[in-house]
Design brief:
It contains seven helices and ten strands. By secondary structure, the protein is α/β, with parallel strands linked by helices. It has a single domain, classed as Vaccinia Virus protein VP39 (Rossmann fold, 3-Layer(aba) Sandwich), CATH 3.40.50. An eight-stranded mixed beta sheet has the order 5-4-3-6-7-9-8-10. It has a two-stranded antiparallel sheet with strand order 1-2. Strand 3, helix 2 and strand 4 form a beta-alpha-beta unit. Helix 1 packs parallel to helix 2. The longest helix has 12 residues. It is globular, with a radius of gyration of 17 Å. 39% of the residues are buried. About 7% of the residues have low confidence. It catalyses: adenosine(37) in tRNA1(Val) + S-adenosyl-L-methionine = N(6)-methyladenosine(37) in tRNA1(Val) + S-adenosyl-L-homocysteine + H(+). Specifically methylates the adenine in position 37 of tRNA(1)(Val) (anticodon cmo5UAC). Keywords: Cytoplasm, Methyltransferase, S-adenosyl-L-methionine, Transferase, tRNA processing. It is found in: Cytoplasm.
Protein backbone atom coordinates (compact mmCIF):
# COMPACT_ATOMS: atom_id res chain seq x y z
CA UNK A 1 0.00 0.00 0.00
CA UNK A 2 1.20 3.49 -0.81
CA UNK A 3 2.20 5.05 2.52
CA UNK A 4 0.66 8.37 1.49
CA UNK A 5 -2.73 6.88 0.73
CA UNK A 6 -5.77 7.23 2.97
CA UNK A 7 -5.67 4.60 5.72
CA UNK A 8 -9.08 3.12 6.50
CA UNK A 9 -9.91 2.06 10.05
CA UNK A 10 -13.18 0.47 11.15
CA UNK A 11 -14.90 3.74 12.06
CA UNK A 12 -12.76 6.48 10.49
CA UNK A 13 -10.26 7.24 7.74
CA UNK A 14 -6.93 9.06 7.91
CA UNK A 15 -5.12 10.93 5.18
CA UNK A 16 -1.42 11.41 5.95
CA UNK A 17 0.22 12.86 2.84
CA UNK A 18 1.01 16.16 4.61
CA UNK A 19 2.56 14.50 7.68
CA UNK A 20 6.29 13.99 8.13
CA UNK A 21 5.68 10.91 10.27
CA UNK A 22 3.22 8.30 9.03
CA UNK A 23 0.88 6.01 10.95
CA UNK A 24 2.85 3.52 13.03
CA UNK A 25 2.61 1.00 15.83
CA UNK A 26 3.53 3.52 18.56
CA UNK A 27 0.51 5.70 17.82
CA UNK A 28 -1.79 2.68 17.57
CA UNK A 29 -0.60 1.39 20.93
CA UNK A 30 -0.98 4.71 22.72
CA UNK A 31 -4.40 5.48 21.24
CA UNK A 32 -5.72 2.08 22.28
CA UNK A 33 -3.96 1.87 25.69
CA UNK A 34 -4.57 5.34 27.15
CA UNK A 35 -7.06 5.13 30.03
CA UNK A 36 -9.24 8.24 29.87
CA UNK A 37 -12.03 7.03 32.14
CA UNK A 38 -13.54 9.99 33.97
CA UNK A 39 -11.84 12.53 31.69
CA UNK A 40 -13.85 15.20 29.91
CA UNK A 41 -11.02 16.96 28.10
CA UNK A 42 -7.78 15.81 26.51
CA UNK A 43 -4.80 17.45 24.81
CA UNK A 44 -2.91 15.47 22.15
CA UNK A 45 0.63 16.86 21.81
CA UNK A 46 2.25 16.33 18.42
CA UNK A 47 -1.01 15.09 16.96
CA UNK A 48 0.38 14.51 13.45
CA UNK A 49 -2.40 13.01 11.34
CA UNK A 50 -4.69 13.00 14.39
CA UNK A 51 -4.62 9.22 14.81
CA UNK A 52 -4.45 9.15 18.62
CA UNK A 53 -7.13 11.83 18.97
CA UNK A 54 -9.47 9.93 16.64
CA UNK A 55 -8.92 6.64 18.45
CA UNK A 56 -9.64 8.28 21.80
CA UNK A 57 -12.72 10.03 20.40
CA UNK A 58 -14.02 6.65 19.24
CA UNK A 59 -13.38 5.05 22.62
CA UNK A 60 -14.84 7.82 24.81
CA UNK A 61 -18.10 9.27 23.54
CA UNK A 62 -18.13 12.40 25.75
CA UNK A 63 -14.45 13.32 25.48
CA UNK A 64 -13.51 16.69 23.96
CA UNK A 65 -10.06 16.70 22.37
CA UNK A 66 -7.60 19.35 21.23
CA UNK A 67 -4.72 18.25 19.03
CA UNK A 68 -1.67 20.46 18.61
CA UNK A 69 1.34 20.23 16.32
CA UNK A 70 4.33 22.48 15.64
CA UNK A 71 4.26 21.49 11.96
CA UNK A 72 1.76 23.36 9.77
CA UNK A 73 1.26 20.48 7.33
CA UNK A 74 0.47 18.05 10.12
CA UNK A 75 -1.95 20.53 11.70
CA UNK A 76 -3.77 20.96 8.39
CA UNK A 77 -3.86 17.18 7.92
CA UNK A 78 -5.30 16.57 11.38
CA UNK A 79 -7.94 19.24 10.82
CA UNK A 80 -9.02 17.55 7.57
CA UNK A 81 -9.15 14.14 9.24
CA UNK A 82 -11.13 15.50 12.19
CA UNK A 83 -13.69 17.18 9.90
CA UNK A 84 -14.16 13.93 7.98
CA UNK A 85 -14.71 11.87 11.15
CA UNK A 86 -17.96 11.00 12.99
CA UNK A 87 -16.72 13.02 16.00
CA UNK A 88 -15.85 16.36 14.37
CA UNK A 89 -17.88 18.31 16.96
CA UNK A 90 -15.57 17.07 19.75
CA UNK A 91 -12.25 17.49 17.93
CA UNK A 92 -10.19 20.61 17.22
CA UNK A 93 -6.60 21.34 16.27
CA UNK A 94 -4.09 24.16 16.80
CA UNK A 95 -0.84 24.85 14.95
CA UNK A 96 1.39 25.82 17.87
CA UNK A 97 4.47 24.91 19.90
CA UNK A 98 3.42 23.21 23.15
CA UNK A 99 5.57 25.57 25.23
CA UNK A 100 3.58 28.53 23.84
CA UNK A 101 0.12 27.02 24.31
CA UNK A 102 -2.40 28.76 26.54
CA UNK A 103 -5.88 27.41 27.27
CA UNK A 104 -8.94 29.02 28.84
CA UNK A 105 -9.40 26.03 31.14
CA UNK A 106 -7.12 23.23 32.25
CA UNK A 107 -7.50 19.73 30.81
CA UNK A 108 -8.05 16.32 32.40
CA UNK A 109 -5.45 14.47 30.34
CA UNK A 110 -2.37 15.11 28.21
CA UNK A 111 -1.54 12.31 25.77
CA UNK A 112 1.55 12.31 23.59
CA UNK A 113 3.57 10.17 21.23
CA UNK A 114 6.37 12.75 21.33
CA UNK A 115 9.53 13.12 19.24
CA UNK A 116 12.06 11.11 21.23
CA UNK A 117 15.15 10.42 19.11
CA UNK A 118 18.18 12.06 20.73
CA UNK A 119 21.37 10.72 19.18
CA UNK A 120 20.38 9.26 15.81
CA UNK A 121 21.01 10.97 12.49
CA UNK A 122 18.79 13.92 11.66
CA UNK A 123 16.20 13.43 8.94
CA UNK A 124 16.58 14.98 5.50
CA UNK A 125 13.76 17.50 6.05
CA UNK A 126 13.16 19.96 8.87
CA UNK A 127 9.57 18.71 9.24
CA UNK A 128 10.65 15.11 9.72
CA UNK A 129 13.40 16.14 12.14
CA UNK A 130 10.88 18.02 14.28
CA UNK A 131 8.54 15.02 14.22
CA UNK A 132 11.28 12.54 15.22
CA UNK A 133 13.79 14.36 17.42
CA UNK A 134 13.46 15.67 20.96
CA UNK A 135 15.35 18.90 20.16
CA UNK A 136 11.98 20.64 19.76
CA UNK A 137 10.21 18.99 22.71
CA UNK A 138 12.50 17.83 25.49
CA UNK A 139 11.37 15.66 28.38
CA UNK A 140 11.78 18.61 30.71
CA UNK A 141 9.61 20.83 28.53
CA UNK A 142 6.97 18.14 28.10
CA UNK A 143 6.52 17.57 31.84
CA UNK A 144 6.88 21.23 32.82
CA UNK A 145 4.31 22.45 30.28
CA UNK A 146 1.94 19.57 31.07
CA UNK A 147 2.03 20.47 34.76
CA UNK A 148 0.84 23.99 33.93
CA UNK A 149 -2.26 22.93 31.98
CA UNK A 150 -3.40 19.75 33.77
CA UNK A 151 -6.12 19.68 36.40
CA UNK A 152 -4.93 18.48 39.83
CA UNK A 153 -6.63 15.15 39.19
CA UNK A 154 -5.25 14.99 35.67
CA UNK A 155 -2.97 12.47 34.02
CA UNK A 156 -0.07 12.50 31.55
CA UNK A 157 0.08 9.48 29.23
CA UNK A 158 3.09 8.76 27.00
CA UNK A 159 4.93 6.23 24.88
CA UNK A 160 8.76 6.30 24.83
CA UNK A 161 11.73 4.05 24.04
CA UNK A 162 12.37 1.78 26.99
CA UNK A 163 16.02 2.86 27.24
CA UNK A 164 14.87 6.34 28.30
CA UNK A 165 12.66 5.20 31.16
CA UNK A 166 15.11 6.16 33.93
CA UNK A 167 15.38 9.71 32.60
CA UNK A 168 11.59 9.91 32.30
CA UNK A 169 11.06 8.85 35.91
CA UNK A 170 13.60 11.42 37.11
CA UNK A 171 12.01 14.29 35.18
CA UNK A 172 8.54 13.19 36.30
CA UNK A 173 9.64 13.32 39.94
CA UNK A 174 11.15 16.78 39.47
CA UNK A 175 7.74 17.98 38.26
CA UNK A 176 5.75 16.29 41.07
CA UNK A 177 4.34 13.48 38.92
CA UNK A 178 3.92 9.90 40.19
CA UNK A 179 3.77 6.77 38.06
CA UNK A 180 0.33 5.15 37.87
CA UNK A 181 0.78 2.61 35.04
CA UNK A 182 3.89 1.21 33.35
CA UNK A 183 3.50 -1.19 30.39
CA UNK A 184 6.59 -2.65 28.72
CA UNK A 185 6.21 -3.50 25.02
CA UNK A 186 8.24 -6.12 23.13
CA UNK A 187 7.90 -7.84 19.76
CA UNK A 188 7.45 -11.19 21.52
CA UNK A 189 8.49 -12.86 24.77
CA UNK A 190 11.91 -13.73 23.31
CA UNK A 191 12.77 -10.18 22.26
CA UNK A 192 13.96 -7.27 24.43
CA UNK A 193 11.58 -4.52 25.51
CA UNK A 194 11.65 -1.65 23.02
CA UNK A 195 8.87 0.70 24.13
CA UNK A 196 7.16 1.64 27.37
CA UNK A 197 3.65 3.03 27.84
CA UNK A 198 3.43 5.29 30.88
CA UNK A 199 0.66 7.02 32.82
CA UNK A 200 1.59 9.68 35.37
CA UNK A 201 -0.61 11.50 37.87
CA UNK A 202 -0.22 13.86 40.84
CA UNK A 203 -1.08 11.29 43.51
CA UNK A 204 1.25 8.56 44.76
CA UNK A 205 -0.92 5.45 44.44
CA UNK A 206 1.63 3.12 46.07
CA UNK A 207 0.33 0.33 43.87
CA UNK A 208 2.65 -2.65 43.48
CA UNK A 209 0.79 -3.83 40.35
CA UNK A 210 1.52 -0.89 38.09
CA UNK A 211 3.92 -2.81 35.81
CA UNK A 212 2.59 -4.97 32.96
CA UNK A 213 3.94 -6.51 29.73
CA UNK A 214 2.57 -6.38 26.20
CA UNK A 215 3.80 -8.59 23.36
CA UNK A 216 2.89 -7.66 19.79
CA UNK A 217 3.40 -11.07 18.15
CA UNK A 218 3.04 -14.73 19.08
CA UNK A 219 6.23 -16.48 20.21
CA UNK A 220 6.69 -18.88 17.31
CA UNK A 221 4.99 -17.07 14.44
CA UNK A 222 4.49 -13.63 12.95
CA UNK A 223 0.82 -13.61 13.94
CA UNK A 224 -0.43 -10.81 16.14
CA UNK A 225 -0.64 -11.81 19.79
CA UNK A 226 -3.98 -12.22 21.55
CA UNK A 227 -2.96 -9.22 23.70
CA UNK A 228 -2.43 -6.93 20.72
CA UNK A 229 -5.62 -8.10 19.00
CA UNK A 230 -7.67 -7.50 22.15
CA UNK A 231 -6.17 -4.01 22.48
CA UNK A 232 -6.59 -2.84 18.88
CA UNK A 233 -9.33 -4.90 17.19
CA UNK A 234 -11.87 -2.07 17.42
CA UNK A 235 -9.69 -0.10 15.02
CA UNK A 236 -7.77 -2.36 12.63
CA UNK A 237 -9.97 -3.36 9.68
CA UNK A 238 -8.13 -6.67 9.35
CA UNK A 239 -8.52 -7.83 12.99
Amino acid sequence: MNKYKTFKFKQFEIGQEKCAMKIGTDGMLLGAWADLSGCNTMLDIGTGSGLISLMCAQRYSELKIIGIDIDLGASEQAEENFKNSPWKERLSVKHIDFSELTLDTKVDAVVSNPPFFKDSYKANTDERTKARHSDHLTLESLFHSSAKILNKGGKLILIYPFDQVEDIYNVASENSFYIAKHCEVAHNIKKPVKRVLLEFCYQNLNDENIVSKLYLKENNSNDFSEQYIALTNKFHPFL
